[in-house]
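Feature request, filed as a ticket because there's no other form

It would be nice if the structure record came with a short human-readable summary line next to the tokens. Right now we just get the raw output. Example of a typical job, pasted below so the devs can see what we mean:
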Amino acid sequence: MSGSTEEVVRLVKQARELVWKAIELADAPGLRKALEDADMMLHWSLWHLAAEEGLAPEVERKTVRS
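Raw output as currently delivered:
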């Protein structure tokens, strides 16, 4: 991976962590769904960058937050 790609991967992972925190705090179901969709898009961004990611982002979220 190039240096710029590594930086993108780092930033996307950081963004996912922030989205996960927002999901935990979200009260409105619509907002929660929008944040979960954002997490899914960030997950697939990492997958397309060939970063090591599983195929189920919701499982990753539960694993990291446990």
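Something like this underneath would help us a lot:
The first helix runs from residue 3 to 25.
The radius of gyration is 12 Å.
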